[in-house]
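User: Last request for today: this protein with P-hydroxybenzoic acid, please.
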Amino acid sequence: MKTQVGIIGGGPSGLLLSQLLHVRGIETVLLEKHTREYVLGRIRAGVLEHGFVDLMREANCAERMDIEGEIHDGFEIAHDGIRDRLDLKTLTGGDTVMVYGQTELTRDLYDARAGADGIVIHNAMNVQPHDLKSDAPYLTYELDGEAQRVDCEFIIGADGYHGVSRQSIPKDILKEYERVYPFGWLGVLSETKPVSPELIYAKHERGFALCSMRSQVLSRYYIQVPLSDKVEDWSDDMFWEELKRRLPDDVVANLVTGPSVEKSIAPVRSFVAEPMRYGNLFLAGDAAHIVPPTGARGLNSAASDIQYLYHAFVDHYLNNDDSGLDGYSAKALARVWKAQRFSWWMTTLLHTFPENSGYDNKLQATDLAYLFSSESAMKSMAENYVGLPY
Ligand code: APR
Ligand code: PHB
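Assistant: Here's the final one, the structure of the complex with P-hydroxybenzoic acid:
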């Protein structure tokens, strides 16, 4: 098989790029090691920045999102028994975010690829990129035990943190930066009405909590837990009791609890790999960077890589201009690091750190007090949360 852009990984990054390039007449072949059902079984984040929403529309993939997704003009931060609100729309001069689950978005992208007869190969085993420094890189893989090959002009590593792409970059070229936080997020999905129309991020001495949602009948809640905790340690009742302890009374009064339909613990980690290009291999999304979930930047950082790659390939194939491809790594990383900074800051602001001194805790409380006392500070938070310009 032969294509222009070979893509490894059928998560949101790979699918979105494949669909955007298709719209502009650029061919892709996408290799995904799991089934579609498996990929869609993973519960991930659900807040899309406005630039991402525009990209889905440009990909002709926004029909359902525009009907079922919810525009949010703001969110709340609960602390010390009270609730402060960040009015994103007013603070940014009109920008908002869209609450629409990554699972639904991925399903829409799969449907769009299928509707356009896009080549998406599931159960592609042992995918390996080759000859990345040449003008004729290629991918090999196995399908039903048979060896396969795709000749490409470019290869995209959109295969997530555990993928093969990043590992194909020589160790003396790749530099990795990492921070591991001493806690995880225990998340529960429940078929209940959200406790509040907007997201509530809660800072509490027992630990951080988040009230989020997927729709008016599907809620997503999280609590900070020690790294040593296992999902099996947490019954639904224990989860709801602990969540209630961390929320203000007026929120608890509105909380509708129910059986969990999904429950999992996610580690809280920051990671960046540099550079994001090696020869004709380009990394995108979780393959190159991970953020703590606190600022809802994970999926959005992936989308910003895809936005840059999309325009770079359009310029390469349609305008004979390689500046986008040549500048990709530096440009993508500049924005990635800003998302890293914001996620680190919001994580530090709202979580309980076991090793913190009394002084550290005072500073943390002051950071929050300053935020809601200063229009400039709120504007800074808001512009980061809705997504910095591409
Ligand atoms: N060969 C083929 N496919 C692979 C390989 C491989 N060697 N390794 C991993 N994959 C697939 C995974 O099965 C997965 O479906 O690559 C896909 C990567 O998807 P994600 O991990 O979702 O990464 P990405 O598409 O960059 O999405 C961005 O943002 O909200 C965050 O972490 C969240 O998944 C989200 C991410
Ligand atoms: C979620 O709904 O899963 C979610 C929302 C906001 C975050 C993180 C996760 O910051």
